[in-house]
Prior knowledge:
The chain is about 25% helix and about 15% strand. It has helices at about 35-40, 45-60, 80, and strands at about 30-35, 60-70.
Amino acid sequence: MYGLNRAYLLIIVLTMDALKMNFKDETYDVVFDKATLDALTSSSNSMKDTAKYISEVYRVLKPNGTYICVSSSAPELRMDHLRQPGLNWDVKFVKIRKSFKIN
Ligand SMILES: C[S@@+](CC[C@H](N)C(=O)[O-])C[C@H]1O[C@@H](n2cnc3c(N)ncnc32)[C@H](O)[C@@H]1O
């Protein structure tokens, strides 16, 4: 039996179009994306889809919310999308090391 002070993480999986999310405005503190932006920048309608996706992420984030985007792309290929007009957020790039050892 787990102790009362044990932290739990509840994950609910929903399937929907990221270009038209079924969430109300300003719902989430954090949006985490691993390679969805990368996929959309490779779509046949990439400029329109990417702009729509980012605007959806922005819409569902609470004011001062955080969008964490894990991408394998060079940052200069993503910054224009993240800095499109109408987005009132700061954009920071953090490089994650490919691997590290635990001794
Ligand atoms: C490169 S994969 C990354 C999958 C997973 N996040 C990972 O890191 O293994 C990109 C994902 O974006 C999804 N995707 C692309 N366009 C989408 C859309 N319009 N709505 C929802 N998901 C989409 C694809 O189905 C695919 O699962």
